Amino acid sequence: MSRTHTSDVVVVGGGIIGLVTAWRAAQRGLTTTVVDPAPGGGAAQVAAGMLAAVTELHHGEQTLLGLNLESARRYPDFVAELTELTGRDLGYRRCGTLAVALDADDRAELRELHALQRRSGLESEWLSGRECRRLEPMLAPGVRGGLRVDGDHQIDPRRLAGALVDACGRAGVVLRRTWAERLDVRRGRAVSVTDSDGDELAAGSIVLAGGSLSGRLAGVPEAVLPPVRPVKGQVVRMTVPERYAPFLSRTVRAVVRGSQLYLVPRENGELVVGATSEELGWDTTVTAGGVYELLRDAHELVPGITELPLTETRAGLRPGSPDNAPLLGPTALEGLLLATGHYRNGVLLTPVTGDALAHALVTGELPDEARAFTPRRFDTVRMERMEQLV
Fold first, then answer.
1. DSSP code, position 390
2. How far apart are the C-alpha atoms of 109 and 48, rounded to whole Å?
3. Could you mention a single GO BP entry for this protein (predicted)?
4. pLDDT value at position 386?
5. Euclidean distance between the first and the last CA atom of the chain, given in angstroms as a whole number
6. Considering the entire predicted model, what is its pTM?
7. Where are the beta strands (DSSP E) in 135-221?
8. Mutual angle of helices 157-170 and 62-86, in 10-degree steps
């Protein structure tokens, strides 16, 4: 027999974005429920956890840069608060990033990135190949130069997810370990979510924070359906034996054969190598080809990597949006808000997303730093497409 449960807020999706939204909402005094069969799962279990607002800068993404930098600025206090509350070590490290070039083309591309960073008022330092190898002796002799970015940090997303599950529990958030099956809309307003147990979860506000699955919830009107797509990423994890430590002292990034590569060393001896970027729908298969390409490119960058034990291969789905930026806050449907589409910046944007959604849930509006990321920025495009179909 189905039952009705009522709260102020229902968050659909229990990844790090859904959890931080629920935690911050509960801190504002809102009774909150999260619907997810495995809270703390999702893309965070695959992600490397680079907090790389400076290194991740891309042409045409200056607006997103502002949000990334604001979230990075909040990270130390965010980590301190979570650690004090839960007693958990989140693996937060201020170790910086070294982005290197292996050939003349890569070197020219890095030079362009350096110029863009400087025009954007960001701090980075150009190093010669010799200076790069002095910082990281395990780098290949062929490294032609690089960018040292001390302002980029890292965190362990798996530990972060676990801490957020704990924080939600301590704040009184109800974690409902079921699937959200359908959004229920009545009289032009989102009023509840029906879950896989057949229960109705009624709320004044419903936040769709399901990552790449956000666009698949039944019952969401076409006009407000999140335009997110899954982008597959394969990642390899290794362990650095004590005899090889310290293998790398900071995150190392490079473009190898046109593909982005990163190596993220953890204090516990883990080394994360990633990641592929594949537009293959909902496929999450770990492939021999994907793993081979990662190991081949990593070996070209750091030859000694072939001596390390391979401990895990995983694949996950990033939620991509049309402009590679998140969709945050109220939609055109009353009662429905979004927190999705973070693409490659989900871990980085966790603090600012939680704050922005909590603000929107209480006031009905996004704070200034997040207003450019309203889901309604796509409304004109949607209307034009719908008119073409008529």
1. -
2. 23
3. thiamine biosynthetic process
4. 41
5. 42
6. 0.95
7. 145-149, 153-154, 174-176, 180-186, 189-195, 200-208
8. 60
| Residues contacting residue 222 through CB under 8 Å, at least 6 positions apart | 386
Task: Determine the Cα–Cα distance for residues 132 and 147; give it in Å rounded to an integer.
Answer: 8
Q: Are 65 and 57 in contact (CB under 8 A)?
A: yes
CA-to-CA distance for 23 and 266, rounded, in angstroms? 27
Decide the pairing of beta strands 32-35 and 180-186: unpaired
User: What residue type is assigned to position 326 of the chain?
Assistant: P
For residue 241, the one-letter residue type is P
CATH class of the region 4-45+159-227+322-389:
alpha beta
| CB 297 within 8 Å of CB 247 | no
Structure tokens at 351: 């603090």
Of 258 and 311, more confident:
311
Mean of the per-residue pLDDT values of the chain: 95
> What amino acid occupies position 244?
Y
Please report how many Cα atoms fall inside a 13 Å half-sphere around the Cα of residue 244, on the Cβ side: 19
The DSSP annotation for 338-357 comes to: EEE--GGGTTTTHHHHHHHH
Residue 253: CB atoms within 10 Å: 24
Please, are residues 368 and 356 in contact by the beta-carbon 8 Å criterion?
no
Asked if 36 and 14 count as a contact pair (C-beta separation under 8 A), the reply is yes
How confident is the model over 25-67, as pLDDT tens digits? 999 999 999 999 999 999 999 999 999 999 989 888 889 999 9
Taking alpha carbons only, the member of 19, 67, 69, 123 closest to residue 323 is: 67
Contact (CB, 8 A) for 202 and 6: yes
205: nearest Cα among 369, 373, 382, 358:
358
Q: Where are the alpha helices (DSSP H) in the chain?
A: 16-27, 62-86, 104-119, 129-135, 157-170, 288-301, 350-363, 379-389
CATH topology of domain 95-152+230-320: D-Amino Acid Oxidase; Chain A, domain 2 (3.30.9)
Domain ranges within the chain, ordered by starting residue: 4-45+159-227+322-389, 95-152+230-320
- Contact predicate 315/232, CB 8 Å: yes
